[in-house]
Amino acid sequence: MKDTALVVVDMLYDFIDGSMACQNADNAIAQSLKFIDKMTAAPQEGDDVIRSQFPILFVRDFHPADHCSFTAQGGPWPPHCVQGTHGADIHEALAPYASEELSFYKGYKQDTEQYSGFEGINEAGQSLYDVLDILDVKNVFVCGIATEFCVLNTARDLKKAGFTVYVLQDALAWVDYQGHLEALSTMQKEGIRLQ
Ligand code: VGL
Ligand code: ZN
């Protein structure tokens, strides 16, 4: 399984129980943990996460307070995942698996919306793609929030870049159920595997 990784998309408080609470979020967390449990033992203090057998990469929406996607700026969304707030934090059940090296931030520029985590960057300036490439990953499992937005766009970009992509369909949460179903069908048509 050395060539296999998990990408956890936006499992952040604002999408779970905050300003953009999504449907199925609690179940998505439970299902993600179940999958992680299956793939790896819980990390111990001092483990070198980037070199562990089953890397878990976290995509994080990370907006400035006046981000262009917020209604006050004419965007479609209520304020969410504002840098430095609780709403931008990874859910506590998943946080033990996260490291800065494997956390990829997106939407941090005021005037740019970024649904895909593909070009999210970590604190060292490496993109999600850079790190998957360095780790020699070929197969990527994807779970997270929201199916229709960041999960769809991240999975598509990964597929386009040549990875074999598996979306954990029980480990997703959505803004709109119909939109969730449509996104699943779009992904399937494009060769993303639903698992
Ligand atoms: C997302 C809407 C706005 C997502 C992020 O993570 O899917 N959706 N920002
Ligand atoms: Zn956002």
Structure description:
It is a single chain. The protein is of the alpha/beta class and 195 residues long. It has a single domain (4-42, 49-194), classed as Rossmann fold (3-Layer(aba) Sandwich), CATH 3.40.50. It has five helices and six strands, in the order E-H-H-E-E-H-E-H-E-H-E. The protein has helices at 13-16, 25-39, 128-134, 147-160, 177-189, and strands at 4-9, 56-61, 103-106, 139-145, 164-173, 193-194. Strands 3-2-1-4-5-6 form a six-stranded parallel beta sheet. Helix 5 (177-189) links the parallel strand 5 (164-173) and strand 6 (193-194). The longest helix has 15 residues, at 25-39. The radius of gyration is 15 Å and the shape is globular. The model has no long low-confidence stretch (mean pLDDT 94).
Bound molecules: pyrazine-2-carboxylic acid, zinc ion
Main sheet overview: 6 strands, parallel
The proportion of residues in beta strands is: 15-25%
Under CATH at level 1, the class stands as: Alpha Beta
Q: In CATH terms, what is the architecture?
A: 3-Layer(aba) Sandwich
Poorly predicted runs are: none
Work out the count of structural domains.
Answer: 1
The count of β-strands is: 6
Q: Could you please say which CATH topology applies here?
A: Rossmann fold
Class inferred from helices and paired strands: alpha/beta
How are helices and strands ordered from N to C? EHHEEHEHEHE
Q: Rg from C-alpha positions?
A: 15 Å
How much is the average pLDDT? 94
